[in-house]
Amino acid sequence: MRVMVRRALVTASATAVLLAVAAVPASADEAFYTPPSPLPAGQNGDVLKSQPSKYNGATATRIMYLSRDAKNQPIPVTGTVLVPSKPWTGPGQRPIVAYAPFTAGMGDQCAPSKTLAGDGSSDITASVQGSFINPLLDKGIAVAQTDYQGLGTPGEHTYVIRAAEGHAVLDVLRAAQRLPGTGLPANGPVGITGYSQGGGASAAAAELAASYAPELNVKGAYVGAPPADKSVLAKSLDGSYAFGFLGFSLIGINTAYPETHMLDLANSTGADLFVQASKSCTMDAIFKFAFKQSSSLTKDGRPVSAYLDQEPFRSVVADLKLGTVKPSVPTLVEHSPLDDILPYAQGKQLAKDWCSLGGTVQFKDLASFTLFFSHALAAFGAAGDSATWLNDRFTGQAATSTCGQF
């Protein structure tokens, strides 16, 4: 009974905090999320369309821009460019930070460019996205937020797919620089931040920046609680309260790598879960799918992790792994030792892998005061650390490495 009460109190506290940062309502325009057909030719990051949006403390513009999927094919991606009301008081031009959102869900109603403006899903986790954005705006730093592939736009969301997410993050910076009428510099300093799913996307962008977007003047990247190794997550998420995130991952893999024929492995219950998960936002997925076992969803009764040592899954998981490419920018990685969704060892190992490649990397533990919902609650501390660390880069403070000290 004591444990149940404690869990209820933690859940209530987390809900109260999430609701406290709710965004300002705005009117919907679903037609905006329909891309032009055929998709126009252009450069990665070109703005296809834009419209005014709403957000406290900033001039907000909803955008659709060109990016690339995991197979390097052109795709439309949506997002939001936020220019703060506060001036930039640091040296040089106003910087822009790409914000890679944490898990919002898979349904189009979950797209952060909708929920940040008060549109779309009423899922309470949508509100906490602002906890990462607001400290940046408060420092006079502009924010370019991406929805990633398939959130809002047609098709399934390629959840935690390294290349697709890294491209979307880098291209939203290009789009912000090219968006007319914002006053943002076309070649000024930029940074990258994200937590959880966003931490993986930020890490992917840091790895891909030198080859995919070498013209960007990236001063640093913040990586919080990254899902670095999908083979580990296939085991840690299975049977957990966050099982829905494993479902999201399988949909992402099936979409980005159709050669895996993921649905062919599922029994009728598994196929139905795929359909339900593809329409769900975060909290809905947690409540619907908590503590499920993937072995009950496959035709042969094996868990998802049992497939990962065989092709084509082995090659796909290797392709998704973070830590194999040296980040070309200074990077801060943070993770809570008590993380109850993404194992702490993931973040620390990613930082060590980057150190071994010669990266300029810092690793720090995120404070966490509870064993329950520690992953979600640690995000609030991460948000402040992200803004402070990136602001230091923009104001000319040199990033130091802590490689060998953790």
TrEMBL record:
Gene3D superfamilies: 1.10.260.130, alpha/beta hydrolase. It comes from the Bacteria. Pfam families: LIP. Residues 1-28 form the signal peptide. Keywords: Signal. InterPro entries: AB_hydrolase_fold, Lipase_secreted. Coiled coil: none annotated. This is Secretory lipase.
